[in-house]
Protein: Cobalt-precorrin-6A reductase
Amino acid sequence: MTASILILGGTTEAYALADCLASRPGLRVMTSLAGRTANPRLPAGETRIGGFGGIPGLVDYLRQEGIAAVVDATHPFASAMGWNAAKACRSVGVPLVRLERPAWAPEREDRWTQVVDWEAAVAALQTGGSKRVFLAVGRQELAPFAGLEDIWFLIRVVTPPDPMPHFRAYELLLARGPFDLESERALLDTHRIDAIVCKNSGGEATSEKLVAARERGIRVIMRERPERPCVPLAASVAEALEWVDRTLGRGEP
Ligand SMILES: NC(=O)c1ccc[n+]([C@@H]2O[C@H](COP(=O)([O-])OP(=O)(O)OC[C@H]3O[C@@H](n4cnc5c(N)ncnc54)[C@H](OP(=O)(O)O)[C@@H]3O)[C@@H](O)[C@H]2O)c1
Structure:
C-alpha cells in the first residue's frame, strides 16, 4: 500500500529529503511550499504551494490526503508553521518530526550579542556605536533598521525587497549563498564593516561571515531562534530518513 508523507519545505534540507524519498516505491512524497518565492525550484515528488489556512486547514489537508507522517523541514525562523503543524498533527494523530539544522554557537574569540528580537538588535547597534553595518536578516525584516540614520548599511538579500524600506545610506547586494570564507573576508574589508546583524539560521551556506568576523574582532548581533513546540527532532536529513523508516515501519529498499 502507498503511504503519503508531507514535507513542510522551504529549506535545502527539505529538498534533500524529498530527493531521497521520492524514488522509494510505495511512498508518495508531497512537499509544501509557502509560496513566498516566484518560480521556486520544485522538489522531487509532488508539490503544493500556499498556506493551508491555519490549523483547521492543515487538519483538513492531512485527513483528505491520508497523510501518514509529516516532516517539518521549514526554516528555523518559520515558527508559525511549526506550531500549526504540531497542533494539527496532534489533533489528527499523525506522527511529526522536526528536521532542523543545529544552531551556530559562539566560540571564545567571538564578540556576539545575542538578542531575541529586532528591537533588541536595534538597541544593541545604538549603544554599540556601530557605523558600518552588514545586515543579513532577509528581505522581509529590514524595516526595523531603517530608522538608524547614523549608520551606513550593507544589505545582502537573495531577491530585492518590495517595498524597500527607506534607509538613509546603504548599498543593496543581491546574492545567493553559499558564501565562501575568502569572499566574506573581502566583503567585510572592502566595506569596512564594524558590525554584522543576522539570524541564527545555522548550516554552512552562510556561516563563513561569522569566521571572517571572528578573525577581525567584528561584533555580531545574533538573533536567537524562536521558541518551538516540543516534538521529536532530527538534526540531519539522514536522521529524518531513519525517523521516516521507523515511523512507516519500513527499511530502505
Ligand atoms: N523565516 C525565514 O527566515 C525563512 C528563511 C528561509 C526560508 N523560509 C521559508 O519560507 C517559508 C515562509 O516563512 P515564514 O517565516 O513566513 O513562515 P511562518 O511564519 O512559519 O509561516 C507563516 C504562514 O505561512 C504559511 N507557511 C509557512 N511555511 C509553509 C509551508 N512550507 N507550506 C505551506 N504554508 C506555509 C502558513 O500559512 P497557513 O497558516 O495559511 O497554513 C503559516 O502559518 C517557510 O516555508 C520557510 O521554510 C523562511
